[in-house]
């Protein structure tokens, strides 16, 4: 007895979903998963390094310019802001 097209597609879908459930996590996703640290640990590491959170409100244009310059900066936005503030306060 032949199966209807709907039943064939349903069986294919069940087969694929079963394969997906039994498949392991690909290596590229598992490599960096152990390197992620939680917020509490990050705060502890920052405080040991002498870093203090500092929040302020800035105009949107200035923030956009900072993000553009931070994209090319090797230390990212935090290092760029530290460098600019240090130069401005001297």
Strand-residue fraction?
under 5%
Q: Quickly count the helices.
A: 5
Order of helices and strands: HHHHH
Number of strands: 0
Set out the fold topology.
Layout: H1 5-22, H2 27-30, H3 39-48, H4 60-72, H5 76-88
Q: How would you explain this protein's 3D organization?
A:
By secondary structure, this protein is mostly helical. The protein has a domain of about 35 residues. It is built from five helices and no strands. Helix 4 crosses helix 5. The chain is elongated and about 85 Å long.
Would you kindly provide a brief summary of this structure?
By secondary structure, this protein is an all-alpha fold. The protein contains five helices and no strands.
Based on the model shown, name its key terms.
mainly alpha; single chain; 90 residues; 5 helices; elongated; 64% helix
């Amino acid at each position: 007895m032949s199966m209807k097209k709907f039943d064939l597609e349903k069986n294919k879908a069940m087969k694929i979903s079963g394969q997906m459930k039994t498949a392991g996590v690909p290596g590229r996703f598992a490599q960096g998963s152990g390197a992620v640290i939680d917020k509490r640990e990050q705060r502890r590491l920052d405080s040991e390094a002498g870093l203090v959170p500092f929040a302020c409100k800035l105009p949107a244009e200035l923030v956009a310019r900072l993000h553009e310059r931070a994209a090319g900066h090797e230390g990212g936005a935090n290092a760029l802001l530290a460098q600019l503030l240090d130069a401005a306060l001297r």
